[in-house]
Amino acid sequence: MAEFLQYLVTGVTIGSIYALAALGFAIVYNASHVINFAQGEFIMIGGMATATLTAAGVPLPLAILAGIAGAMLVGVLIAKFAVERARNASVVTLIIITIGASIFLRGLAEVVWGKEFHRLDSFSGNAPLMLGGAVVTTQSLWVLGVTAALILATGLFFNRTMAGKAMLATSHNRLAAQLVGVNVRHVVLAAFALSAALGAMGGAVVAPITYSYTEMGIMLGLKGFAAAALGGLGNGVGAVAGGLIVGIAESLSAGYISSAYKDAVAFVIIVAVLVFMPGGLFGRAGTERV
Amino acid sequence: MSALHRHRTDALPEEPPASAPRAAAPLLRVEGLSREFGGVLAVADLSFTIAAGTVHSIIGPNGAGKTTLFNLITGVYRPSGGRVLFDGRDVTGMAPYRLAALGLSRTFQNLQIFMNMTAVENVMVGRHRHLDTRLLPALLRLPSLVRRDHAAADRAAELMRAVGLERYVGTDAASMPYGALKRLEIARALAAEPKLLLLDEPAAGLNATEKKEIGAVIRRIADTGITVVLVEHDMKMVMGLSDHILALNYGRKLAEGRPEEVARDPDVVAAYLGSHG
Amino acid sequence: MTHRLLGLGLLAVVLALLPLGLPNNFYLDMAILAGLNAIVCVGLNLLVGFAGQVSLGHAGFFGIGAYATAVLVSTHKWPALLALAAGALLSAVIAFAVARPILRLKGHYLAMATLGIGIIISIVLRTETRITGGPDGMIVDPLNVFGFEVYGERVWYWVVAGLLLVTVWLALNLIDSPVGRALRALHGSEVAAETLGVDTARFKAMVFVLSAVFASVAGSLFAHYAGLITPAKADFLKSVELVTMVVFGGMASTFGAVVGAAILTVLPQLLTVFQDYQHMMLGLILMLTMVFMPKGLLPTLAGLVQARTSLGGRR
């Protein structure tokens, strides 16, 4: 039982990061119908910036903010100079564009930060807590708390603020939103900025657990995409649930089945779900209109 | 099965086209057909028959369920209830490509042209079920396959001529004008050598001259013995071409009969006036 | 069509003359690797460019071919051609098994599913250490065909060039056949293709399997040529590289796929002069090309030439 609880804690912790990444995918997808393969690089930027800046003596909160700001800037630039200009390109072309962006960002990160692993201290000491027999690091609590706060804030933003509602409206009907005065181009930029901020924050809180390195975003991003597809593309709540499901399933199978196949779990789940439920767990497959 | 062979003389026109081979047999029979979208019935308990060799029009205001009906008959949608019988066979819920093999062909209200191909290649896709579609002969370009392909290209060009598109044979579909694409769809559907041809608003968006020409094309198709089902808003064309008319409203049958009967039907008049007022 | 043979003839001439312009084995090596990538891309283009079905997992099939050859030839001492055929058969069986369920998906969901399958294959190859040697990979015996050993860059070049020509010939044949038209039709309008009698599920599965087989054969040859195979050759980044070559060169253009494969195989080598900045440059070039030439290199160039000539004709 303690063992199970331990796996669950680990799973929810890493699942939180997948959830943030998946939420980022969902927000961008809603605004622009683009799957942003550079989503993982936002996580990387957050993790790397926080780790290297604190190592250089910058206070932690400031380092995190700098990482978030940097990621948001990168996100807006990608949206403005790559995605927006290729609006009418095919799905594959858009995929290649965002993959090009992610290769560029990894290359840039190698130049700026080097290829080595960077360590970041836990935010509040290394003494673990015991919870019903399971060891819970304080950093796990940070991850959970920050993720919960971000998800809540994102939910409030979309449901309570004018800007959020305008973004939602755009995702439902682009033309109608335009007609009632929503600046659709700004919505796309805002979506990239928001998803970058979520990713970078996730990267900062998870860095003490995973270390940070320039390639940390590849798998985190792909699993985030898997989680987003699991929840049904463009479904925010589904994305969060998908992230947690992937994280928990991964941790449990690593514990009980084989740790070697840990990275495959997310993809086995998503392929199985897509085969049997083509619209994702919570999505609905649309009927083609002719 | 015996029900299929029952004659429905009341559904027949008084004077079937001279060239129609078996005017008496119902080619298509729809029984209690329904389709629901999110709790709304787009087609509700609809029954009718279409006699072979006739031109049969389906009219009704926008949203009456005409296109949904086409999609149900051609297998694009699965019905929520009821049956579709084609040429004496229960084809309810059958995949579109299998229905095509039985001799059902259609055009689309919103053009569904293969924009990534030339015009003549579009029509050649219509020949698909008459060609060798195995992988290996295609990879190796076997002479037998090439011969049949050349014949198919000739036939496709012939059909394009028949609908007045001879000058567009080698043109990329993407660079053809709208009116020409409407005819291209008809040529493509004809290439399959259908028994039943469903035309979904063939005259929509065309000018008066083009409408007249397309009307003449449809007349010629019907004269070759192909049964035509026409969804169209242009009443002049409908009245001029049809042997039989089915009027729908809100997915239900409003009236049915010879053109002049349906035109006089008070429900039909009300539905049309109502939809404008 | 003479048009078809013209392109093929031109490719043959270029391939025949190319070694004259290549000063040493380093360049021949690049040409061989480009040729092997081109074989994969010509097949992948049938799926992605012509039939319009995304795959972000084809390196998995490349990997299956490569590892089938490595394991069967090096460990079990099978004849090379038999191992190559076995790898192709295994790829075909796996591709066929997954094709129908996943090719019902569209757009990003299809991208996700193929990506997932590719990653699962690469993780299996990386993890089954006892058979595959794990992350360090496997040493592979040289290619030996009926006692004749294919050895040295020069011989390899002619083998790969010949096979590339055959691949291009097969692809061109296919595109201009009822099967090829069915594939292009289901790309243009799936519902229209269906109502014209095209069993779209069958043709999607057919082209998926065919492209997997092309990738597998190229993988087998690569394993022999390189003499070493690692799981990296089957992973997500390799899959992305392959699709990028197709899209870069021009979707639905067979010669575009060859050009894309050639350029993107050579480009990273050229970019090494930028040293630390090479990845940045590669990412930037990909982004800019796709933003400004979303149709890819060859179709865009062809469009420009066409616009020029029609303009000139009017003058």
From TrEMBL, chain A:
Q: Which CDD domains match?
A: TM_PBP1_LivH_like
> What keywords are assigned to this protein?
Amino-acid transport, Cell membrane, Membrane, Transmembrane, Transmembrane helix, Transport
- Subcellular location as annotated: Cell membrane
Q: How does it sit in the membrane?
A: Multi-pass membrane protein
Provide the transmembrane region boundaries: 6-29, 64-83, 90-109, 129-158, 187-213, 225-252, 264-283
Which InterPro entries does UniProt cross-reference here?
Answer: ABC_transp_permease, BCAA_transport_permease
Q: Which family is this protein grouped under?
A: Belongs to the binding-protein-dependent transport system permease family. LivHM subfamily.
Q: What is this protein called?
A: Branched-chain amino acid ABC transporter permease
Automatic annotation (TrEMBL), chain C:
Q: Where in the cell is it found?
A: Cell membrane
Say yes or no: keyword Secreted present.
Answer: no
Q: Where are the transmembrane segments?
A: 26-48, 55-74, 80-99, 108-125, 155-175, 205-226, 246-267, 279-298
Signal sequence span is none
- Return the InterPro entries for the record: ABC_transp_permease (IPR001851), LivM-like (IPR043428)
Keywords of this protein's UniProt record, alphabetized? Cell membrane, Membrane, Transmembrane, Transmembrane helix
Keyword Transmembrane helix in record: yes
**Protein's membrane topology:** Multi-pass membrane protein
Write down the PANTHER family for this protein, in alphabetical order: BRANCHED AMINO ACID TRANSPORT SYSTEM PERMEASE, HIGH-AFFINITY BRANCHED-CHAIN AMINO ACID TRANSPORT SYSTEM PERMEASE
What is the name attached to this protein's record?
Branched-chain amino acid ABC transporter permease
Report the source organism. Azospirillum oleiclasticum
Output the lineage of the source organism: Bacteria, Pseudomonadati, Pseudomonadota, Alphaproteobacteria, Rhodospirillales
